[in-house]
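Interim report to the steering committee. The following record documents the input for D-alanine--D-alanine ligase (331 residues).
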Amino acid sequence: MKSTMSRVALIGGGANSEHAVSLASADAVGAALIRAGFVVLRLDLDQDGGWRDANGGPLTPAAAVAAIGTCDVLFPMVHGPGGEDGSLAALATLLAIPCVGSGLRPGAAGMDKWLSKLIAAELGVQVADGVLVRAGDPLPQVPGDCVVKPVAAGSSQGVTLVTSADGDDALQRAIAAALTHDEQVLIEERLRGREIDIAVLRRADGSLLVSPPLEIEVPGFFDYAAKYDGSAQFTLPAAITDVELKALQEHAITLFEGFGCAGLARIDFFLTERGWVFNEINTIPGMTEQSQAPRMLAAAGLDYAALLTELVTAALPPPSTMRQFPGDRAH
């Protein structure tokens, strides 16, 4: 059981294109943690990389680090670079404070879509054919339709579908759009199949909980607009066969363990004619109550408050070793 006075340093925002999404996740997580009896110290990173307190006031980096140092655990809720890539987990390590979720190495590897593909393939999980390009590289020859995406970005930011009929100019524009988010761009074959996600949670007792799968259906391409404009339809659980489900669960566990994840990860796949194909792994997935990973865990019997409690409890040291501060209160 957690201490009723566990102090959680919850960090949202971020200096990247997912800033608003991260704020929404942090708002939801903070409110739920307070209701569950935790003491929450809310800090945010603004879009310029500066620190802000719970009221939006500026903090020096030294003041932010000092505030985090008064807490029992750091809960990073910054999607994208500067958070999900392991940066905040590394900060927690340097401060000798436990951190919710995955550490630096799995965060960095999961954020890098090219590296993720290499790891998944090495683990025996199918991946889409792709090529890595940088600014100034010659335009690659891409047979058929392709998806152009930044190597390290999330929420489908900077992602473009280019069809074989669009021509080289469209491909060049798509690469340029992706380069506004990252210095490396991944061009992948367009996969034809069903987009299905699954979540894996390392519980406080060390066991793994694998969620039911969730299928995403959209009228067109699942880009940033489709992700947040309400047009996407979610089916939970996804209608797949027992054989397909067993293979999906095995792949999810293989990837979770192979990347070295902790806490919660959402792993995205396509179910194609050649079987399951890995798309990406998210070590800090969207965390509002209606986000995909919490919804999948709720379908597995773990409601939102219980999920967050599991995540914090798994990261905390035993209660007898935790620091207590007189007059603790929610901020």
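The CA atoms of residues 46 and 100 lie 21 Å apart. The committee is asked to note this result when reviewing the revised timeline.
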